[in-house]
From TrEMBL:
Annotated PANTHER family: UDP-GLUCOSE 6-DEHYDROGENASE, UDP-GLUCOSE DEHYDROGENASE/UDP-MANNAC DEHYDROGENASE
Broad EC category: oxidoreductase
Name of this chain's protein: UDP-glucose 6-dehydrogenase
Signal peptide limits: none
Family: Belongs to the UDP-glucose/GDP-mannose dehydrogenase family.
SMART domains found in the cross-reference section: UDPG_MGDP_dh_C
Species in which this protein is naturally found: Papaver nudicaule
InterPro entries recorded: 6-PGluconate_DH-like_C_sf, NAD(P)-bd_dom_sf, UDP-Glc/GDP-Man, UDP-Glc/GDP-Man_DH_C, UDP-Glc/GDP-Man_DH_C_sf, UDP-Glc/GDP-Man_DH_dimer, UDP-Glc/GDP-Man_DH_N, UDPglc_DH_euk
Length: 480
């Protein structure tokens, strides 16, 4: 019987191992983490992450062939295959700060594996890591091996939050990179056999280690680049009277380009895009490729520009000041169907409005008040480091309140910013909302989900990203 152990019970480790346990009933799968509260949550009725379909799978497999534990050493020493799915946050200080990945957690995981192993192991990189991490891990394991053989594989995850379970059930591809040696090929085969329980053979791709590591960064960079491209177009559409939705539809009909990831918005978020592109930039700089680094830097610059542009639109539309005005924020997660707020554009938009002394009232159906207050009080890149390394108690942001429905968020507000495309926001009673707002009443739709014409008939002044401007906004400067 094959035993699998996964280090790290987060967004990647938890769902991935749950699906492996479901699809491979003959394999024992243990997810370990040093965080006791997190493991306790995985063992409870309220899982630490929200992902459609995950609850049912965990409940079916937990206690049968899926286990969650804080006893790292026991389960690592017993495992045949060890997935390492620990954080690789961006460094906040030192060499490469603000760009390079911090491999502290990876290194301590590797040292622990070397310490407790008594039999040969296959060690699988599951978290997104910079190219050549495998080489560093290999060196640590080889120099501490005590005669045990370790094979390192790179098996990057390509999950989209909100559809992680669907993506795991039916992946576009499973990428496994390993050494081009007999032992390396044997390790690739062993991991392929696990996935082959449910993934068609032609979707399991074997590559060398570096290709697998770089493919993950490249895939995220290409996706983020598409969003920045359409967002750059949205600014031009507003300036010229074009409609970005019509432009994107026309462009997406070209089969060489395709329609996905062409929705203009207030900007991209999530735990990976910015981090992976910064990582790519750093690797390019380290390898003497400044032109390539600058090309990818621009993807992030456009994303930051889009968030600033949105805040400027809000402020300039409202007589160039939001000081003391109540602004309702609908949606804080970086996209619908997830409670994840990592790098969500809402953070920068809220901070921008707070910087102009607005009073903001936030409603999101899945994000807790504690999480929102924490996000608004942390500096860039701090969010991805363990809680005990973050500033102790987030100073509560006085001007930001968190409420539990859209109607109380919008009551007496001067304006509404829609920052997450939750389905429920499409079906709100906007007449009721309008009646309870200060006038003129503004809607700034950062996701293009509301029917702007209907809202204008009610009496709202509406700004939709990349759409022809409301006559009110035409005379306002795009930048405050």
């Amino acid at each position: 019987m094959v035993k699998i152990c996964c280090l790290g019970a987060g967004y990647v480790g938890g769902p991935t191992m749950a699906v492996i346990a479901l699809k491979c009933p003959s394999i024992e799968v243990v997810v370990v983490d040093i965080s006791q509260p997190r493991i306790a949550a995985w063992n409870s009725d309220t899982l630490p992450i929200y992902e459609p379909g995950l609850d049912e799978i965990v409940k079916e497999c937990r206690g049968r062939n899926l286990f969650f534990s804080t006893d790292l050493e026991k389960h690592v020493s017993e495992a045949d295959i060890i997935f390492v799915s620990v954080n690789t946050p961006t460094k906040t200080r030192g060499l490469g700060a603000g760009k390079a990945a911090d491999l502290t957690y990876w290194e301590s995981a590797a040292r622990m594996i070397a310490d407790v192993s008594k039999s040969d192991k296959i060690v699988v990189e599951k978290s997104t890591v910079p190219v050549k991490t495998a080489e560093a891990i290999e060196k640590i394991l080889m120099h501490n091996s005590k005669g045990i053989n370790f094979q390192i594989l790179s098996n990057p995850e390509f999950l989209a939050e909100g559809t992680a379970i669907k993506d795991l059930f039916n992946p576009d591809r499973v990428l496994i990179g390993g050494r081009e040696t007999p032992a390396g090929q044997k390790a690739i085969q062993a991991l392929s056999d696990v996935y082959a329980h449910w993934v068609p053979q032609d979707r399991i791709i074997a590559t060398n280690l570096w290709s697998a590591e770089l493919s993950k960064l490249a895939a995220n960079a290409f996706l983020a680049q598409r969003i920045s491209s359409v967002n750059a177009m949205s600014a031009l559409c507003e300036a010229t009277g074009a409609d970005v939705a019509e432009v994107a539809h026309a462009v997406g009909k070209d089969t060489r380009i395709g329609p996905k990831f062409l929705n203009a918005s207030v900007g991209f978020g999530g735990s990976c895009f910015q981090k992976d592109i910064l990582n790519l930039v750093y690797i390019c700089e380290c390898n003497g490729l400044p032109e390539v680094a600058n090309y990818w830097k621009q993807v992030i610059k456009i994303n930051d520009y889009q968030k600033n542009r949105f805040v400027n639109r809000v402020v300039s539309s409202m007589f160039n000041t939001v000081s003391g005005k109540k602004i309702a924020i609908l949606g804080f997660a970086f996209k619908k169907d997830t409670g994840d707020t990592r790098e969500t554009p809402a953070i920068d938009v809220c901070k921008g409005l707070l910087g102009d002394k607005a009073r903001i009232s936030i409603y999101d159906p899945q994000v807790t008040e504690e999480q929102i207050q924490r996000d608004l009080s942390l500096n860039k890149f701090e969010w991805d480091h363990p809680v005990h390394l973050q500033p102790m108690s987030p100073t509560t942001v006085k001007q930001a309140s968190v409420v539990w429905d859209a109607y109380s968020a919008t009551k007496d507000a001067h304006g509404i910013c829609i920052l997450t495309e939750w389905d429920e926001f499409k079906n709100l009673d906007f007449q009721k909302i309008f009646d309870n707002m200060q006038k003129p009443a503004f809607v700034f739709d950062g996701r293009n989900i509301v029917d702007a014409e209907k809202l204008r008939e009610i009496g709202f002044i509406v700004y939709s990203i990349g759409k022809p401007l409301d006559s009110w906004l035409k005379d306002m400067p795009a930048v405050a």
